[in-house]
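Protocol step 4 of 6: structure prediction from sequence.
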Amino acid sequence: MWNIGDSKDRTAEQDDIHARRATSFGAEAAAYAEHRPDYPAAGIRWALAPLGGKESPVVLDLGAGTGKLTQGLIAAGAQVIAVEPDDGMRAELVRRCPGVTAIAGAAEAIPLPDGSVDAVVAGQALHWFDLPRAFPEIARVLRADGVLAAFWNIEDDRVEWVAGLKQVSRSGASLPPPDKDGALPAHPLFTDFEDSDFAHTHRRTAESLTATIGTYSHTVVIPGAQRTALLDRIHAYLRGRPETADGEFDVPIRTKTIRAVKRAADSPL
């Protein structure tokens, strides 16, 4: 698995790129909402399973963005509170998820009372958190035996054309790939993380998949001329592959999902 959120092996330049990418999404909020994939219902059910089928659990969507995961949680019967630091992303969430409580805040300073939610989830966001500061805050707002879960939609590069797409999509702001053999994040306030993969797909065309990649942080933060050249290269690649040249196609996705449970105060490690 990955050393998610671990920056000890990054250079100062890579830390700067990481910080710029983390705050890049607001300007692309509408495109993000239009083009990013949702999350599979099976993965959401698995993430919340430790709650034992509790009816209408209160779930905090942390780093909620434009509400991609929020919508799946609502469909699963959850009462959702969305916390998102970026004004543009949060405004798009409110537009797309009317009635959801959406609050400005961050994983390191969650604006909710102690013990107020049954679960905290993060979609495509945990790797942006300062985990040593975020873990105690998450544990604080969770009720006893509450769940922490995180999701990542990852294009399945075991498929040849997807592997090729990943190569042509790299930019000057791309960071080294994470260590897939590294440890899952861990903290004494939580049980050991479990992980599972869920098959998922995203229906796209060459044009809309190019637009999707245009919402990725490593394409947003580069200079305009480089961004145009990169997106042109991606589009040309997709138009040149028989699998993606014409009409709609399914992008194969693996939704990596991890979950842990808040430890009781007197629980042994």
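Step 5 (inspection) to follow. The mean pLDDT is 87.
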